[in-house]
Amino acid sequence: MRIYHSSFAKGITFRFFFKMKYYLIAGEASGDLQGAALVNALGRTDSSAELRCWGGELMAEAGATVVKHYRELAFMGFVEVVKNLPAILRNFKQAKADILSFQPDCLILIDYPGFNLRMATWAKQQGIRVFYYISPQLWAWHTSRVKIIKDCVERMFVIFPFEMDFYKKHGVEVTYIGHPLACVIAQHKANQAFFSKNGLEPNRPIIALLPGSRRQEVERMLATMLKVVPQFADYQFVIAGAPSLGPGFYEPIMSKVQAVKLVHAQTYDLLSHAYAALVTSGTATLETALFMVPQVVCYSAGSISYRLAKQLVNKDLKFISIVNLIAGKEVVKELIQHDFNPDNAIKALEDILVGPKRNAMLADYQAIVKQLGDLDGAGLAAKEIFACLNDGFKAP
Cα–Cα distance between 33 and 39 in angstroms, integer? Predict the structure, then answer.
């Protein structure tokens, strides 16, 4: 937004406004989902908003002009980052050039810390106001990066209650907006044609496999997940295909296992009908909990990446899954690195199909839903960003 001041009468100042420009950066599927909600909310709050972003189909459908798709940004782990460093550096260069050309009134960063924290530093140097929507997990690992947030970000919008204390302790301006997925999932209506559409058996319970959204992640996680299938003949297994990965990507991984279905870009419909799930650690664990699907959380990284990550992780952190972190206790079983193997996965899955562990998990899910509340997080963030940009015309 460009502002001009003209005094035409004593004591009266007239201000003329042009439309506000917002630039958003999301680097993965979960960021695209959450970014879409924010794009929608900004459009409702500021009807003349011009929105440009790095994201995906959902942000485009919400009304933003997508410059670069997140599938070109999804490099996972330290080794993969090093191997793809030339592409990453080109992405930084392209982002900076496009932002300068667009001349936004603010830059809104959505999670994706490896890229976005560097963009925050650069944007601050350019005099661009920076807001951060959906905090990186700085409370979990490489906590020293919070200094970048304090120095470069005008306001954090956080989605977990425990993040408020973390940022306040470090002197960062922070607003709790509730988790946007709570509202999105509460409003989701299950597709009653899901079974017939995907050739599934309506009377046979589904175990959902959510192996992640990034190429390297899916390749590593899905192969092990599929090894549990033969032990559960009474169930049908269905893989949640990521929107950024075409069906052809999954076929070679699935080829050794019979009677496993793939549904592409239908994760919420799948979870609406699932009886249990194996889920790669990340946002999907919370989505699964909000759909009230008992789950086993899994995670495995390359050996070098895992050893390096262990050096950076907050030593006080007891869990890695969002569900357990919110609850402050073990609600879902976590199978991490070497513990993620077929035998352990089979045992953990058996434990939540029937009996007290399943019932206890569902009760804990209800408590988490209550704790997150039913705030319109995207709407609250959009209104506050708009107010900050207009209130007193605060300099960055």
Answer: 10
Which H/E stretch holds residue 36? Answer: helix 29-45
Token couple for 317: 């952190």
The residues that bridge with 285 in the sheet, in sequence order, are none
Mean pLDDT of all residues in the chain?
Answer: 89
- pTM to 2 decimals? 0.74
Selection from 229, 242, 232 nearest residue 282 by Cα: 242
Cβ neighbours of residue 255 closer than 8 Å, sequence gap 6 or more: none
Q: Dihedral angle at the C-alpha atoms of 364, 368, 374, 380, nearest 10 degrees?
A: -170
Given a cut of 90, whether residue 29 has pLDDT beyond it is no
Count of other CB atoms within 10 angstroms of residue 277: 29
Phi first, then psi: give them for residue 70, nearest 5 degrees.
-65, -20
Instruction: In whole angstroms, give the CA distance from residue 128 to residue 395.
Output: 9
Enumerate residues 6+ apart whose C-beta is below 8 A from 137: 113
Q: Decide: 295 and 279 in contact? Cβ < 8 Å.
A: yes
Q: Which domains does the chain have, with CATH numbers?
A: 3-178+375-393 (3.40.50.2000), 185-372 (3.40.50.2000)
Provide CB contacts within 8 A for 321, sequence distance 6+: 281, 285, 297, 332, 334
Rounded to whole angstroms, the Cα distance separating 193 from 197 reads 6
Helix axes 356-372 and 283-290, enclosed angle (nearest 10): 100
Give the dihedral sign, CA 239/241/242/245: positive
Selection from 24, 5, 6, 29 nearest residue 218 by Cα:
29
**Mapping DSSP to helix (H, G, I), strand (E, B) and coil, where does residue 203 land?**
coil
